[in-house]
Amino acid sequence: MASNFSFKRELNQVLFEGDSHFKKVILNRPRKLNILSYEMISQMLTNLRAFEMDPTIKFIILKGNGNAFCAGGDVVSICTSMVAGHWSFGARFYEKQFNLDYLLATYKKPLIPLIDGIVMGGGAGLTMHGRFRIVTEKAVFAMPEVHIGLFPDLGASHFLSRLPGYFGEYLGLTGAGVDGAEMLACGLATHFVFSKDLLNLENTLQTQTSLEIAMICKIIEQFAQNPKIKEDCAYNRSEIINKCFSKDTVEEILLALENEVKLKNKAENWIIKAINSMKLASPTSLKITLKSIREGRQQTLKQCFIREYTISCNILRGTVSRDLLKGSRAMFFDKDKKPKWEPRKLELVSKDMVDRCFSAIDEDDWEYLQLPSRFDAVEKILQPRL
After folding, report:
1. Strand, coil or helix: 190
2. pLDDT by residue (tens digit) across 88-102?
3. Which residues are catalytic?
4. Statement: residue 383 has pLDDT above 50
Protein backbone atom coordinates (compact mmCIF):
# COMPACT_ATOMS: atom_id res chain seq x y z
CA MET A 1 0.00 0.00 0.00
CA ALA A 2 1.62 3.24 -1.14
CA SER A 3 0.77 6.81 -0.21
CA ASN A 4 1.95 10.29 -1.01
CA PHE A 5 4.20 11.28 1.86
CA SER A 6 5.87 14.59 2.58
CA PHE A 7 8.06 15.86 5.39
CA LYS A 8 6.70 19.37 4.84
CA ARG A 9 4.52 20.43 7.75
CA GLU A 10 1.06 21.72 6.94
CA LEU A 11 0.63 24.99 8.85
CA ASN A 12 -2.48 26.85 10.04
CA GLN A 13 -4.80 23.84 9.77
CA VAL A 14 -7.15 25.53 12.23
CA LEU A 15 -7.56 29.28 12.61
CA PHE A 16 -8.60 30.89 15.88
CA GLU A 17 -9.99 34.37 15.35
CA GLY A 18 -12.37 36.79 17.01
CA ASP A 19 -12.73 39.70 19.41
CA SER A 20 -12.51 39.70 23.18
CA HIS A 21 -16.12 38.53 23.65
CA PHE A 22 -16.32 35.79 20.98
CA LYS A 23 -14.09 33.37 19.11
CA LYS A 24 -14.21 31.78 15.67
CA VAL A 25 -12.77 28.30 15.20
CA ILE A 26 -12.19 27.86 11.46
CA LEU A 27 -11.19 24.53 9.91
CA ASN A 28 -8.59 25.46 7.32
CA ARG A 29 -7.72 22.55 5.04
CA PRO A 30 -10.01 23.48 2.12
CA ARG A 31 -8.11 21.41 -0.47
CA LYS A 32 -8.58 18.35 1.72
CA LEU A 33 -12.23 19.13 2.53
CA ASN A 34 -11.17 20.15 6.05
CA ILE A 35 -10.43 16.55 7.04
CA LEU A 36 -9.38 16.49 10.68
CA SER A 37 -5.73 15.74 11.37
CA TYR A 38 -4.33 14.79 14.76
CA GLU A 39 -2.79 18.26 15.03
CA MET A 40 -6.13 19.98 14.33
CA ILE A 41 -7.90 17.93 16.99
CA SER A 42 -5.16 18.65 19.52
CA GLN A 43 -5.19 22.40 18.85
CA MET A 44 -8.97 22.61 19.03
CA LEU A 45 -9.08 20.66 22.28
CA THR A 46 -6.50 22.92 23.92
CA ASN A 47 -7.99 26.19 22.71
CA LEU A 48 -11.64 25.33 23.30
CA ARG A 49 -10.86 24.29 26.87
CA ALA A 50 -9.19 27.68 27.39
CA PHE A 51 -12.09 29.56 25.76
CA GLU A 52 -14.57 27.82 28.04
CA MET A 53 -12.68 29.00 31.12
CA ASP A 54 -12.24 32.60 29.90
CA PRO A 55 -15.08 34.69 31.40
CA THR A 56 -14.79 37.38 28.73
CA ILE A 57 -15.66 34.98 25.88
CA LYS A 58 -19.43 34.66 25.48
CA PHE A 59 -19.84 32.30 22.50
CA ILE A 60 -17.97 30.30 19.85
CA ILE A 61 -18.60 30.13 16.08
CA LEU A 62 -17.40 26.95 14.34
CA LYS A 63 -17.02 26.93 10.55
CA GLY A 64 -14.91 25.64 7.68
CA ASN A 65 -13.05 27.36 4.86
CA GLY A 66 -13.78 26.28 1.30
CA ASN A 67 -16.59 24.13 -0.08
CA ALA A 68 -16.75 21.68 2.83
CA PHE A 69 -17.41 22.08 6.51
CA CYS A 70 -15.57 18.85 7.36
CA ALA A 71 -15.47 15.56 5.45
CA GLY A 72 -14.32 13.49 8.43
CA GLY A 73 -11.15 12.35 10.14
CA ASP A 74 -7.77 11.60 8.58
CA VAL A 75 -8.24 7.88 7.91
CA VAL A 76 -5.19 7.79 5.61
CA SER A 77 -2.76 8.67 8.42
CA ILE A 78 -4.39 6.08 10.68
CA CYS A 79 -4.14 3.34 8.04
CA THR A 80 -0.55 4.26 7.19
CA SER A 81 0.33 3.71 10.85
CA MET A 82 -1.60 0.42 10.91
CA VAL A 83 0.39 -0.88 7.94
CA ALA A 84 3.58 0.04 9.81
CA GLY A 85 2.35 -2.03 12.76
CA HIS A 86 1.21 0.84 15.00
CA TRP A 87 -2.57 0.49 15.35
CA SER A 88 -2.23 2.27 18.71
CA PHE A 89 -1.72 5.59 16.91
CA GLY A 90 -5.26 5.28 15.61
CA ALA A 91 -6.45 4.50 19.14
CA ARG A 92 -4.75 7.65 20.42
CA PHE A 93 -6.24 9.65 17.53
CA TYR A 94 -9.73 8.45 18.41
CA GLU A 95 -9.21 8.98 22.13
CA LYS A 96 -8.38 12.63 21.54
CA GLN A 97 -11.20 13.06 19.02
CA PHE A 98 -13.80 11.57 21.37
CA ASN A 99 -12.60 13.90 24.12
CA LEU A 100 -12.92 16.91 21.80
CA ASP A 101 -16.41 15.93 20.70
CA TYR A 102 -17.51 15.30 24.28
CA LEU A 103 -16.19 18.73 25.27
CA LEU A 104 -18.21 20.34 22.47
CA ALA A 105 -21.33 18.32 23.30
CA THR A 106 -21.24 19.49 26.92
CA TYR A 107 -19.80 22.96 26.32
CA LYS A 108 -20.81 25.52 28.92
CA LYS A 109 -20.95 28.38 26.42
CA PRO A 110 -23.04 28.69 23.25
CA LEU A 111 -21.37 26.89 20.36
CA ILE A 112 -22.70 27.85 16.92
CA PRO A 113 -21.66 25.59 14.01
CA LEU A 114 -22.24 27.00 10.53
CA ILE A 115 -22.46 23.97 8.23
CA ASP A 116 -22.10 25.31 4.70
CA GLY A 117 -21.00 22.27 2.71
CA ILE A 118 -20.10 18.62 3.27
CA VAL A 119 -20.34 17.30 6.83
CA MET A 120 -19.40 13.66 7.27
CA GLY A 121 -17.94 11.39 9.92
CA GLY A 122 -15.72 13.43 12.21
CA GLY A 123 -17.40 16.63 11.02
CA ALA A 124 -20.72 15.29 12.30
CA GLY A 125 -19.02 14.41 15.59
CA LEU A 126 -18.04 18.06 16.02
CA THR A 127 -21.52 19.43 15.42
CA MET A 128 -24.40 16.99 15.93
CA HIS A 129 -24.45 16.91 19.73
CA GLY A 130 -24.96 20.59 20.48
CA ARG A 131 -27.92 22.91 20.92
CA PHE A 132 -27.35 24.71 17.60
CA ARG A 133 -26.79 23.04 14.21
CA ILE A 134 -27.16 25.61 11.42
CA VAL A 135 -27.13 24.36 7.83
CA THR A 136 -27.46 25.92 4.38
CA GLU A 137 -28.65 24.79 0.95
CA LYS A 138 -25.03 23.69 0.31
CA ALA A 139 -24.94 21.33 3.28
CA VAL A 140 -24.65 17.59 2.59
CA PHE A 141 -24.66 15.15 5.51
CA ALA A 142 -23.55 11.52 5.26
CA MET A 143 -22.04 8.79 7.43
CA PRO A 144 -20.45 6.51 4.78
CA GLU A 145 -18.10 4.61 7.11
CA VAL A 146 -19.47 1.15 6.21
CA HIS A 147 -17.92 1.54 2.77
CA ILE A 148 -14.37 1.75 4.14
CA GLY A 149 -14.66 -0.94 6.80
CA LEU A 150 -15.56 1.37 9.68
CA PHE A 151 -18.90 2.23 11.33
CA PRO A 152 -20.67 5.52 12.20
CA ASP A 153 -18.91 6.60 15.39
CA LEU A 154 -18.10 9.74 17.39
CA GLY A 155 -21.56 9.66 18.93
CA ALA A 156 -23.43 8.65 15.77
CA SER A 157 -25.11 5.76 17.56
CA HIS A 158 -26.59 8.41 19.87
CA PHE A 159 -27.82 11.00 17.37
CA LEU A 160 -28.80 8.55 14.61
CA SER A 161 -30.85 6.46 17.01
CA ARG A 162 -32.78 9.56 18.06
CA LEU A 163 -33.96 10.50 14.58
CA PRO A 164 -37.63 9.81 13.81
CA GLY A 165 -38.49 6.14 13.43
CA TYR A 166 -35.68 4.13 11.86
CA PHE A 167 -34.29 6.88 9.65
CA GLY A 168 -31.00 6.66 11.56
CA GLU A 169 -30.58 2.99 10.66
CA TYR A 170 -31.23 3.91 7.03
CA LEU A 171 -28.54 6.61 7.05
CA GLY A 172 -25.99 4.51 8.94
CA LEU A 173 -26.38 1.29 6.93
CA THR A 174 -26.55 2.87 3.46
CA GLY A 175 -24.26 5.88 3.87
CA ALA A 176 -26.91 7.90 2.01
CA GLY A 177 -26.52 11.66 1.84
CA VAL A 178 -29.15 14.21 2.81
CA ASP A 179 -29.18 17.91 1.99
CA GLY A 180 -29.73 20.86 4.30
CA ALA A 181 -33.51 20.93 3.93
CA GLU A 182 -33.78 17.22 4.72
CA MET A 183 -31.38 17.64 7.66
CA LEU A 184 -33.73 20.24 9.12
CA ALA A 185 -36.80 18.09 8.52
CA CYS A 186 -35.40 14.98 10.21
CA GLY A 187 -33.80 16.80 13.15
CA LEU A 188 -30.11 16.64 12.22
CA ALA A 189 -30.19 20.45 11.96
CA THR A 190 -31.89 23.02 14.17
CA HIS A 191 -31.92 25.93 11.70
CA PHE A 192 -31.65 26.49 7.94
CA VAL A 193 -30.05 29.72 6.71
CA PHE A 194 -29.21 30.55 3.10
CA SER A 195 -25.48 30.54 2.43
CA LYS A 196 -25.59 34.16 1.24
CA ASP A 197 -26.95 35.23 4.65
CA LEU A 198 -24.31 33.55 6.83
CA LEU A 199 -21.97 36.53 6.89
CA ASN A 200 -24.79 38.85 7.99
CA LEU A 201 -25.73 36.32 10.67
CA GLU A 202 -22.15 36.23 11.92
CA ASN A 203 -21.91 40.00 11.96
CA THR A 204 -25.18 40.34 13.86
CA LEU A 205 -24.06 37.81 16.45
CA GLN A 206 -20.73 39.58 16.85
CA THR A 207 -22.35 42.91 17.73
CA GLN A 208 -23.84 41.34 20.85
CA THR A 209 -21.54 41.50 23.86
CA SER A 210 -23.69 39.59 26.34
CA LEU A 211 -25.36 36.69 24.66
CA GLU A 212 -27.86 34.47 26.41
CA ILE A 213 -29.30 31.38 24.73
CA ALA A 214 -32.66 33.11 24.19
CA MET A 215 -30.97 36.05 22.45
CA ILE A 216 -28.91 33.76 20.21
CA CYS A 217 -32.09 31.93 19.21
CA LYS A 218 -33.80 35.22 18.44
CA ILE A 219 -30.94 36.40 16.22
CA ILE A 220 -30.72 33.11 14.33
CA GLU A 221 -34.48 33.10 13.79
CA GLN A 222 -34.17 36.44 12.00
CA PHE A 223 -32.22 34.67 9.25
CA ALA A 224 -33.76 31.21 9.43
CA GLN A 225 -35.85 29.76 6.61
CA ASN A 226 -38.20 26.79 6.38
CA PRO A 227 -37.26 25.14 3.08
CA LYS A 228 -39.32 22.47 1.39
CA ILE A 229 -37.75 19.05 1.07
CA LYS A 230 -37.67 17.30 -2.30
CA GLU A 231 -40.78 15.25 -3.04
CA ASP A 232 -38.77 12.12 -3.88
CA CYS A 233 -36.37 12.29 -0.91
CA ALA A 234 -36.06 9.26 1.36
CA TYR A 235 -37.35 11.10 4.41
CA ASN A 236 -40.74 11.36 2.69
CA ARG A 237 -40.82 7.55 2.58
CA SER A 238 -40.89 7.01 6.32
CA GLU A 239 -43.48 4.22 6.10
CA ILE A 240 -41.25 2.05 3.92
CA ILE A 241 -38.09 2.97 5.86
CA ASN A 242 -39.67 2.08 9.18
CA LYS A 243 -41.05 -1.16 7.75
CA CYS A 244 -37.68 -2.29 6.37
CA PHE A 245 -35.08 -0.83 8.71
CA SER A 246 -36.88 -1.88 11.90
CA LYS A 247 -35.96 -5.52 11.24
CA ASP A 248 -33.71 -7.29 13.73
CA THR A 249 -30.84 -8.21 11.39
CA VAL A 250 -29.06 -6.73 8.40
CA GLU A 251 -30.07 -9.76 6.33
CA GLU A 252 -33.74 -9.14 7.15
CA ILE A 253 -33.44 -5.43 6.33
CA LEU A 254 -31.90 -6.20 2.94
CA LEU A 255 -34.54 -8.84 2.21
CA ALA A 256 -37.33 -6.41 3.15
CA LEU A 257 -35.93 -3.81 0.75
CA GLU A 258 -35.69 -6.39 -2.03
CA ASN A 259 -39.27 -7.42 -1.37
CA GLU A 260 -40.34 -3.78 -1.78
CA VAL A 261 -38.78 -3.83 -5.23
CA LYS A 262 -40.76 -6.96 -6.13
CA LEU A 263 -44.01 -5.42 -4.90
CA LYS A 264 -43.74 -2.44 -7.23
CA ASN A 265 -43.83 -2.35 -10.98
CA LYS A 266 -41.20 0.36 -10.88
CA ALA A 267 -39.09 0.52 -7.75
CA GLU A 268 -38.29 3.93 -6.34
CA ASN A 269 -34.75 5.06 -7.02
CA TRP A 270 -33.80 5.51 -3.36
CA ILE A 271 -34.65 1.85 -2.62
CA ILE A 272 -32.44 0.61 -5.46
CA LYS A 273 -29.62 2.85 -4.24
CA ALA A 274 -30.05 1.60 -0.66
CA ILE A 275 -29.84 -2.05 -1.74
CA ASN A 276 -26.83 -1.51 -3.99
CA SER A 277 -25.06 0.55 -1.34
CA MET A 278 -25.51 -2.09 1.36
CA LYS A 279 -24.30 -4.84 -0.99
CA LEU A 280 -21.11 -2.87 -1.65
CA ALA A 281 -20.42 -2.20 2.05
CA SER A 282 -18.35 -4.28 4.44
CA PRO A 283 -20.59 -7.04 5.82
CA THR A 284 -18.82 -6.83 9.18
CA SER A 285 -19.26 -3.06 9.30
CA LEU A 286 -22.97 -3.36 8.52
CA LYS A 287 -23.58 -5.74 11.42
CA ILE A 288 -21.50 -3.64 13.82
CA THR A 289 -23.40 -0.52 12.73
CA LEU A 290 -26.84 -2.00 13.32
CA LYS A 291 -25.93 -3.34 16.77
CA SER A 292 -24.29 -0.02 17.69
CA ILE A 293 -27.30 2.12 16.73
CA ARG A 294 -29.70 -0.22 18.50
CA GLU A 295 -27.64 -0.10 21.71
CA GLY A 296 -27.32 3.68 21.37
CA ARG A 297 -31.07 4.09 21.71
CA GLN A 298 -30.87 3.08 25.36
CA GLN A 299 -27.62 4.85 26.29
CA THR A 300 -26.42 8.32 27.19
CA LEU A 301 -23.97 10.11 24.93
CA LYS A 302 -21.12 9.32 27.31
CA GLN A 303 -21.96 5.63 27.26
CA CYS A 304 -22.13 5.71 23.45
CA PHE A 305 -18.72 7.35 23.23
CA ILE A 306 -17.13 4.77 25.52
CA ARG A 307 -18.66 1.86 23.59
CA GLU A 308 -17.82 3.34 20.18
CA TYR A 309 -14.20 3.87 21.21
CA THR A 310 -13.97 0.19 22.17
CA ILE A 311 -15.40 -0.86 18.80
CA SER A 312 -13.02 1.49 16.96
CA CYS A 313 -10.00 0.03 18.77
CA ASN A 314 -11.08 -3.51 17.85
CA ILE A 315 -11.42 -2.47 14.20
CA LEU A 316 -8.00 -0.79 14.22
CA ARG A 317 -6.43 -3.84 15.86
CA GLY A 318 -8.11 -6.20 13.41
CA THR A 319 -9.74 -8.28 16.13
CA VAL A 320 -12.09 -10.08 13.70
CA SER A 321 -11.47 -8.39 10.34
CA ARG A 322 -8.98 -6.24 8.41
CA ASP A 323 -11.72 -4.56 6.42
CA LEU A 324 -10.58 -1.05 7.34
CA LEU A 325 -7.31 -1.59 5.47
CA LYS A 326 -9.10 -3.28 2.57
CA GLY A 327 -11.68 -0.50 2.29
CA SER A 328 -9.14 2.30 2.64
CA ARG A 329 -6.89 0.73 0.02
CA ALA A 330 -9.79 0.64 -2.44
CA MET A 331 -11.02 4.16 -1.65
CA PHE A 332 -7.95 6.27 -0.78
CA PHE A 333 -4.83 4.51 -2.06
CA ASP A 334 -5.36 2.41 -5.21
CA LYS A 335 -8.76 4.08 -5.71
CA ASP A 336 -10.21 1.16 -7.65
CA LYS A 337 -13.28 1.18 -5.35
CA LYS A 338 -13.24 -2.63 -5.29
CA PRO A 339 -12.54 -3.70 -1.71
CA LYS A 340 -12.18 -7.42 -1.05
CA TRP A 341 -14.06 -7.77 2.21
CA GLU A 342 -13.31 -10.64 4.54
CA PRO A 343 -15.72 -12.15 5.44
CA ARG A 344 -17.28 -11.28 2.11
CA LYS A 345 -20.90 -12.26 2.90
CA LEU A 346 -23.29 -11.23 5.65
CA GLU A 347 -24.06 -14.83 6.60
CA LEU A 348 -20.37 -15.44 7.29
CA VAL A 349 -20.26 -12.68 9.94
CA SER A 350 -21.34 -14.43 13.13
CA LYS A 351 -22.90 -12.89 16.22
CA ASP A 352 -19.79 -13.87 18.16
CA MET A 353 -17.56 -11.95 15.75
CA VAL A 354 -19.68 -8.82 16.16
CA ASP A 355 -19.84 -9.19 19.95
CA ARG A 356 -16.05 -9.44 20.14
CA CYS A 357 -15.78 -5.98 18.57
CA PHE A 358 -17.84 -4.60 21.48
CA SER A 359 -15.57 -6.25 24.09
CA ALA A 360 -12.46 -5.02 25.90
CA ILE A 361 -9.11 -5.56 24.19
CA ASP A 362 -6.91 -8.09 25.91
CA GLU A 363 -3.70 -6.09 26.01
CA ASP A 364 -1.94 -4.82 29.14
CA ASP A 365 -1.77 -1.16 28.14
CA TRP A 366 -5.32 -0.85 26.76
CA GLU A 367 -8.14 0.65 28.78
CA TYR A 368 -11.68 1.89 28.21
CA LEU A 369 -12.13 5.50 27.10
CA GLN A 370 -11.83 7.88 30.04
CA LEU A 371 -14.04 10.96 29.77
CA PRO A 372 -14.16 13.79 32.32
CA SER A 373 -17.16 14.35 34.56
CA ARG A 374 -19.17 17.14 32.96
CA PHE A 375 -22.79 18.22 32.95
CA ASP A 376 -24.19 16.10 30.13
CA ALA A 377 -26.29 18.87 28.63
CA VAL A 378 -26.94 16.94 25.45
CA GLU A 379 -29.27 14.54 27.22
CA LYS A 380 -31.76 17.39 27.62
CA ILE A 381 -31.42 18.47 24.01
CA LEU A 382 -31.68 15.26 22.02
CA GLN A 383 -34.54 13.06 23.16
CA PRO A 384 -35.61 9.89 21.33
CA ARG A 385 -38.42 10.45 18.85
CA LEU A 386 -39.67 6.99 17.98
Report:
1. coil
2. 999 999 999 999 999
3. 73, 122, 145, 153
4. no
